[in-house]
Amino acid sequence: MEKNDELTKLTLHIILLEIVQKKLNQLDESLNSVAQKEKSAMSKYQRVNKRDKPAKKTARREIAQLTKSICRIKDNECRDAIALRHKIKKVRNRIKKIQKASNKANLHLQEVKQNRKYTQIQFMLFFQIKGIVCKTIAGGGVL
């Protein structure tokens, strides 16, 4: 029963990890989009640079804003990646614990089976010895 609960938890964690992976992919796409906008703003800045100063200032502001956006996206992506790594590590640890518990249970089961065989052999020997003793007492002699 506990293994089923653990497996359910692991399944839920895997689903969460997939959701986080999708989020990371979305963040990567937004980062690429912002980088593309930054490139276009940079080319706009270079074209406008030749024309006039007011347009040049506007282009510089756009570049600064886009650079800040890229920094924010990178920070969020790093945080998400760290959280994802942490969750993966937790799931791996849980899997290891379940495997250890399963191995212990298998060893215990083997010990119980071995003890049962040993006990059966003891009973057989006991009854054989009891039979020999009874025959000796009755005067049948030892065989």
What would your notes on this structure say?
By secondary structure, the protein is mainly α. It has one domain. The protein is 93% helix and 0% strand. The protein contains two helices and no strands. The protein has helices at residues 2-49, 53-137. The two termini are 54 Å apart.
Keywords summarizing the entry:
143 residues; mainly alpha; 0% strand; rod-shaped
Fold topology:
Elements: H1 2-49, H2 53-137
Helix pairs in contact: 1-2
Mean pLDDT: 74
Helix content: over 70%
Shape: rod-shaped
Number of strands: 0
Terminal residue distance:
54 Å
Q: Which stretches are poorly predicted, pLDDT < 50 over at least 5 residues?
A: none
Order of helices and strands: HH
- Number of spatially distinct domains: 1
The biggest sheet, with number of strands, parallel, antiparallel or mixed sense and barrel status, is: none
Radius of gyration: 37 Å
User: In percent terms, what proportion of residues is strand?
Assistant: under 5%
**Which structural class do the helices and strands define?**
mainly alpha
In short:
By secondary structure, the protein is an all-alpha fold. It is built from 2 helices and no strands.
